[in-house]
Design goal:
Elements: H1 8-11, H2 15-34, H3 71-80, H4 96-111
Length: 115
């Protein structure tokens, strides 16, 4: 089962703290592939491959994703990874709260990025 969004995340008076902690996690764990602004230009992006050894750059997380575009879809991808790609599961590395912090950060970036 996928982690449920913590109930205090919707009504949190300290939304900026949630986003700040999400950004710290993102920069540490996600930016090497997705880049610091999540556009798919991290330092490891040019070396990523699919399961057959073909180049497969990471997704630009600020645009709609083929695997689903809702917060729950993003959460599922982070939690379970994506088979046949370099995207690993973070279920063992992150707590449910931490995964939701990253998801909310990406959602915030998307809402403040012009189309």
């Amino acid at each position: 089962p996928l982690p449920v969004k913590p109930s205090d995340f919707d009504l949190s008076a300290d939304h900026s703290k949630i986003l700040q902690e999400g950004d710290q996690l993102f920069q540490q764990l996600c930016a090497p592939c997705h880049g610091p602004q999540a556009i798919g230009d991290g330092p490891a992006s040019s070396s990523l491959e699919d399961s057959e050894g073909h180049p497969l750059p990471p997704a630009n997380l600020l645009i709609p994703l083929g695997c689903g575009d809702s917060e729950e879809d993003m959460l599922r991808t982070i939690w379970t990874g994506m088979s046949a790609t370099a995207m690993p599961s973070f279920a063992e590395a992150l707590s449910p709260k931490e995964v939701w912090q990253i998801v909310l950060l990406i959602s915030e970036w998307r809402s403040s990025t012009p189309p």
